[in-house]
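User: My instructor asked us to take a sequence, write out its structure as C-alpha coordinates, and then describe one feature of it. I'm not sure where to start. Here is the sequence I was given:
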Amino acid sequence: MVILKITMKETQYKNFNHFKLHTQFSICEGAIKIDNLKEYCKNNKTRTLGICDTSNLSGALEFSESLSKNGTQPIIGTQIIFNDNEDRGFLTLLAKNEIGYKEILYL
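Assistant: Let's start with the prediction itself. The C-alpha coordinates for your sequence are:
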Protein backbone atom coordinates (compact mmCIF):
# COMPACT_ATOMS: atom_id res chain seq x y z
CA MET A 1 0.00 0.00 0.00
CA VAL A 2 1.38 3.38 -1.02
CA ILE A 3 0.41 6.51 0.87
CA LEU A 4 0.98 9.82 -0.85
CA LYS A 5 1.56 12.90 1.20
CA ILE A 6 0.68 16.02 -0.71
CA THR A 7 1.68 19.33 0.76
CA MET A 8 1.11 22.83 -0.48
CA LYS A 9 3.76 25.46 -0.47
CA GLU A 10 2.92 28.47 1.67
CA THR A 11 2.34 30.62 -1.42
CA GLN A 12 -0.10 28.05 -2.81
CA TYR A 13 -1.93 27.88 0.52
CA LYS A 14 -2.37 31.65 0.65
CA ASN A 15 -3.93 31.56 -2.83
CA PHE A 16 -6.32 28.75 -1.92
CA ASN A 17 -9.99 29.73 -1.75
CA HIS A 18 -12.87 27.87 -0.14
CA PHE A 19 -15.88 28.08 -2.45
CA LYS A 20 -18.21 25.49 -1.02
CA LEU A 21 -18.69 26.09 2.67
CA HIS A 22 -22.02 25.15 4.20
CA THR A 23 -23.25 27.45 6.96
CA GLN A 24 -25.96 26.99 9.56
CA PHE A 25 -28.44 27.67 6.74
CA SER A 26 -27.75 24.23 5.20
CA ILE A 27 -29.91 22.06 7.39
CA CYS A 28 -28.05 18.93 8.56
CA GLU A 29 -25.02 19.77 6.39
CA GLY A 30 -23.30 22.71 8.03
CA ALA A 31 -23.01 24.30 11.42
CA ILE A 32 -20.61 27.16 10.74
CA LYS A 33 -21.98 30.46 11.93
CA ILE A 34 -21.31 33.50 9.80
CA ASP A 35 -19.89 35.43 12.78
CA ASN A 36 -17.33 32.65 13.23
CA LEU A 37 -16.42 32.83 9.54
CA LYS A 38 -15.97 36.58 9.85
CA GLU A 39 -13.55 36.15 12.76
CA TYR A 40 -11.68 33.35 10.96
CA CYS A 41 -11.21 35.50 7.87
CA LYS A 42 -10.08 38.46 9.93
CA ASN A 43 -7.54 36.44 11.94
CA ASN A 44 -6.17 34.59 8.90
CA LYS A 45 -6.28 37.47 6.42
CA THR A 46 -8.44 35.43 4.06
CA ARG A 47 -8.84 37.22 0.73
CA THR A 48 -11.91 35.37 -0.59
CA LEU A 49 -14.44 32.93 0.80
CA GLY A 50 -17.53 31.36 -0.73
CA ILE A 51 -20.66 29.85 0.74
CA CYS A 52 -22.71 27.24 -1.04
CA ASP A 53 -25.67 26.33 1.13
CA THR A 54 -28.00 23.66 -0.22
CA SER A 55 -31.16 24.87 -1.97
CA ASN A 56 -31.15 28.35 -0.46
CA LEU A 57 -29.48 31.74 -0.32
CA SER A 58 -30.72 32.58 3.19
CA GLY A 59 -27.30 33.55 4.53
CA ALA A 60 -26.10 35.44 1.45
CA LEU A 61 -26.82 38.99 2.64
CA GLU A 62 -25.46 38.49 6.17
CA PHE A 63 -22.40 36.66 4.79
CA SER A 64 -21.70 39.32 2.18
CA GLU A 65 -22.03 42.27 4.56
CA SER A 66 -20.02 40.65 7.38
CA LEU A 67 -17.08 39.56 5.27
CA SER A 68 -16.91 42.73 3.18
CA LYS A 69 -16.38 44.80 6.33
CA ASN A 70 -13.23 42.78 7.07
CA GLY A 71 -11.83 43.11 3.56
CA THR A 72 -12.68 39.56 2.49
CA GLN A 73 -14.32 39.13 -0.92
CA PRO A 74 -17.52 37.10 -0.40
CA ILE A 75 -18.52 34.61 -3.08
CA ILE A 76 -22.20 33.72 -3.10
CA GLY A 77 -23.47 30.40 -4.32
CA THR A 78 -25.84 27.56 -3.71
CA GLN A 79 -26.00 23.84 -4.29
CA ILE A 80 -29.16 22.62 -5.98
CA ILE A 81 -30.50 19.09 -6.17
CA PHE A 82 -31.48 17.86 -9.60
CA ASN A 83 -33.25 14.76 -10.84
CA ASP A 84 -32.81 13.31 -14.31
CA ASN A 85 -34.89 10.20 -14.82
CA GLU A 86 -33.53 7.90 -12.12
CA ASP A 87 -30.33 9.84 -11.50
CA ARG A 88 -30.08 12.35 -8.67
CA GLY A 89 -27.25 14.72 -8.02
CA PHE A 90 -26.02 18.08 -6.82
CA LEU A 91 -25.07 21.05 -8.94
CA THR A 92 -23.01 23.88 -7.51
CA LEU A 93 -23.85 27.36 -8.76
CA LEU A 94 -21.60 30.33 -7.99
CA ALA A 95 -22.48 33.92 -8.83
CA LYS A 96 -19.79 35.81 -10.73
CA ASN A 97 -21.60 39.13 -10.44
CA GLU A 98 -25.02 40.66 -9.77
CA ILE A 99 -26.44 39.18 -12.98
CA GLY A 100 -25.31 35.72 -11.93
CA TYR A 101 -26.83 36.22 -8.49
CA LYS A 102 -30.16 37.16 -10.07
CA GLU A 103 -30.01 34.08 -12.30
CA ILE A 104 -29.52 31.86 -9.24
CA LEU A 105 -32.48 33.55 -7.57
CA TYR A 106 -34.54 32.85 -10.67
CA LEU A 107 -33.67 29.16 -10.54
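For the description part of your assignment, you could build on this observation: The two ends are 46 Å apart (CA to CA). Try explaining in your own words what that tells you about the chain.
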